[in-house]
Design goal:
alpha+beta, Phosphorylase Kinase, domain 1, Aminoglycoside 3'-phosphotransferase, Chain: A, domain 2, two-stranded antiparallel sheet, 12 helices, 46% helix, 12% strand, binds 2-acetamido-2-deoxy-1-O-phosphono-alpha-D-glucopyranose, binds magnesium ion
Length: 369
């Protein structure tokens, strides 16, 4: 994208400031994200994003959900007794000159701007202290969401995290393609077949009324938990595009599958991928220190399944996208999504091998909290 074009869009949100720079930022798989630098002594940056409207077909609703959260969260935050030396930041939406929450460019591109939060994010966490903070961040975020009625939130991404729907999609894609027969493809095809029978586990529990719909983040992988660079404390949850009704299990599973994979989801060394149970314990400790107030017995009963299911789901989504010709996730090379699927499936195997250890540590965390 040309700089002039980006500067013009950025200036819709900050008409009174000189724009010094617009740089690509982060490594999201869906939207395009930029950091805009301003000629200012305070608030020197803001985040500018073009929402991928192939994925989010009604981006206005994404903004609406974000607005519901940003409006309600500050008063909820006040009710939480944060430790005195802890700060927590809530992202805010920047408006255009005309007071709108987004700007459409001449090609129909959908742009929005968000206040920049000074901090650090990590694609991979390496120690228990960081892990505890990541869990705490998600627990605090769920607490901030917990009194927002689901009816106030739109379904911005139908079928998101609904594993049986991803399997149906996968089956439809398979009918139309003849995948190559490399060792990796054979492995992934077989992997899915061996596990499709339990893929309904969370949705069945939802249907039976065991797991309630609640407002969730939808994408709380570790690099969406912002940390303070000097104190190491979690200070914000960012990337609020997928706030919508769902199961907290989708969030817990996503946080754990990303936080407990020491090689990260982009490694090509998938044979070495494993699920680290020490980090799992620390994330859960941090999470439960906040979330125990609203979780129920049934919620606990499905924690293990949520970790396995979300890692499986993401692997399946990557593999389906590889088969479909990489139409959903951005890729750097044609087999990128296949490799990403391999990583998640190896992670699932590691989770399955350690099932009893993980179930035991969940129990332990419960009795500690
Ligand atoms: C996508 O774009 P990003 O990185 O925020 C995806 C998540 C996946 C994640 C895997 C809307 O999120 O569900 O877990 O990639 N977001 C959407 O890295 O599909
Ligand atoms: Mg995201």
């Amino acid at each position: 994208m040309e700089l002039d074009f980006l500067v013009n869009i950025a200036s819709q949100f900050k008409p009174d400031r000189q724009i010094l720079e617009v740089q690509e930022f982060g490594n999201g798989n869906i939207n395009k994200t930029f950091r805009v630098s301003l000629d200012a002594s305070e608030e020197r940056y803001f985040i500018l994003q073009r929402i991928n409207t192939q994925v989010f077909s009604q981006p206005e609703l994404v903004m609406q959900n974000m607005r519901v959260f940003c409006d309600r969260a500050p008063e909820n935050l006040q009710k939480i007794n944060l430790e005195p030396d802890r700060r927590w930041e809530i992202p805010s939406i920047l408006l255009t000159q005309k007071g709108q929450e987004y700007w459409r460019d001449r090609e129909g591109g959908f742009w929005r701007a968000i206040r920049f939060i000074e901090g650090q994010t990590y694609d991979i966490i390496t120690n228990s202290q960081q892990a505890k903070e990541v869990g705490y961040g998600l627990g605090l975020f769920h607490t901030l969401l917990s009194n927002i009625p689901c009816e106030e939130l739109a379904d911005t991404l139908e079928g998101f995290h609904i594993l049986p729907r991803y399997l149906e999609q996968y089956d439809r894609i398979l009918e139309k393609t003849s995948p190559s027969t490399t060792a990796e493809v054979k492995y992934t095809l077989q992997f899915v077949e061996n596990r499709r029978h339990w893929a309904t586990i969370l949705e069945d529990a939802k249907q039976l009324g065991k797991l309630p719909l609640r407002p969730i983040h939808g994408d709380p992988k570790v690099n969406n938990v912002m940390m303070d660079a000097s104190t190491g404390q979690a200070i914000a949850m960012v990337d609020l595009d997928t706030i919508k009704p769902g199961l907290v299990h989708y969030d817990i599973g996503d946080c754990l599958r990303s936080g407990c994979n020491l090689l990260g989801e982009e490694t090509e060394n998938w044979d070495e991928v494993s699920f680290n149970t020490d980090l799992c314990q620390a994330i859960l400790q941090g999470y439960l220190s906040m979330a125990q107030s609203f979780l129920t017995e049934n919620d606990y009963a499905y924690l293990y399944d949520s970790i396995r299911a979300i890692a499986f789901e993401l692997g399946l989504r990557f593999f389906s996208d590889y088969l479909a010709g990489n139409v959903y996730f951005k890729v750097k090379y044609p087999e990128h999504n296949l490799n990403r699927a391999m990583v998640q499936f190896k992670l699932v195997e590691s989770i399955e091998r350690q099932e009893s250890i993980i179930r035991d540590l969940i129990q332990e965390c419960l009795s500690d909290n």
